Amino acid sequence: MASGSDVQPAIEGHLLEQPALLLRPWAPAEARKSRPIDDDATGRPLGFACWPAPPRSWVGWLSRTGMEVFETEDASLLMTLLPPRWWSSAWEVLDAEDRLVGKIKGPHILDAWHDRAVSLRKDAHGGVFIDAHRQELGRFSLLEQKTIRLNFYPILEGQPFPRMLLLSSVLCLKNG
Fold first, then answer.
1. What pTM did the predictor assign?
2. Greater confidence, 30 or 28?
């Protein structure tokens, strides 16, 4: 099992390639609410999560919009998190091409085939992500000023979709 002491060096590159991320507090903006995502080791901005601007007409309320996550370097869309519909309790996680990556349903992360892939076990300081084989995949820690540190353990190195689901799970947390 991996432990929180497993430290990986910072990697120059993309958001999902980093060993640890800092999710800064949600900041209200003029057009839309956003949350910066930085490299934990360097503090370098890597991306941001945001909610789209509210629709300008009543027709816009009929469309399904969700939280979007972008990489900072070129503001390219990384993923979209669609909130639950009235008949479902799961958030849907879509990649940049609108393909289903998985779902977040309470403390459970389901893969694209709706199988439970990961469970989140929360504690007073954050939580740990555990797969079906009881291996720890990562941990999130609640820091001061509503900042969250998300650590990806080495077992997830080179696996962007599981990392995407762990990041999504933390972004969907209430009070996070």
1. 0.86
2. 28
